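Please study the protein below:
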Amino acid sequence: MLLVLAALFVAGSLTVTRAFSAENAARQEMIDAREALSQVNDLMLLLYEAESAQRGVLLDRPGEDLGPFRAAEAALPAIAGQMQASLDRAGSDLSAQGRRLRSLAEQRMTEMSGALASAPAPATTLRSSMADLRQVSDAIRREERALMDAAYARADGERLRAKRTLGMIGAAVLGLIALAALLAFRAARSESRLRYRDEIAAQRDRAELVSRELSHRVKNLFAVTMSIMSVTARNETDPKLAAQKTRSRIQALARAHELSSGQNPMRTAQFGDLLAAVVQPYCPPGATLRRSGPKMVLPTRLLTPMGLIFNELATNSVKYGAWSAPSGTLKVDWTFASDETLVVIWQEQLAETGSPQPGREGFGSTMINLSLQQAKATMERRWGEKGLTAVLRFPLSQADKVEVTATGKD
């Protein structure tokens, strides 16, 4: 399209240039013709003046002076030469006519000069000479007018062609603009459709992720609830006391679920409080949770991913780890590294030495990985004879450091 526009611009420029050139040529033709006709008129006027002076002398007027005639006779070569030069520039036809007119003028001047020196020439001869002069001068005038008319006709033709060409170029440019607008509209519409399709796909993926997370959480809640009910029923003989403890533990589990789901009404929380709210409800009777680390207020962006990570780790501990059997111990330590990274050590200790049961990789592992990505954190896991040991590192940005405060021990 750019090449087409460039070609149209070049064509328009050439057309306008030709029109201007034709108009300039017509203008120059008019100037040259005016100059040539003026010199022809000067030559004829000179001959008329010479003839008038010559007749005055021939009529024997007393005291008639030959000065005007001689002056006209002397001026004839210069005027005739200028006229011939102008007509030579106009073309061969006018140049020939000019030479003939010059010859007739010189002949007429010679005749008039001879008449003054001797007997006058016959009147018919004089009239014939002047008729020839007028005929040639009229022919020159007609030729000059024809040349001017032709030049103006060429200029008019070029102007008309320029108007038509520029009109077609304008129409082509408007067509190209309309085509470009149409293509831009289609491209924008296609881009909008693609963006809308991508948004729909992203929304579908998010909905699928939420659905899977919901299904996973419901399964985990049922599993943990069943575990709480089973352990409580084994350790309590009084039905009322067992029901009361079961209800309180399920309520604590609901609070932990609320916090780990990002529904905490508090914008900030201390790390120890978060750990207690999310992990403590999973601790079965007879098991132990040990926490150690400085008191610190967490940045807002870490609350939800941390809650999800510790919720999954606690759920796995109940299913496969230290809290899957009575007297199991979970120890959680946290501190700041030299680069001001929050380091959390999650260490499980089975009541009896045996083969740990890490379980299969499922949606819970996916949730942990997604939460780690959201928090820009890392986690190293290893299974030993006593159970799982996980080291989590949460790097803190400059904005996080403004929110975080750490004093004392929790």
Observations:
- The radius of gyration is 58 Å.
- The chain has nine helices and seven strands.
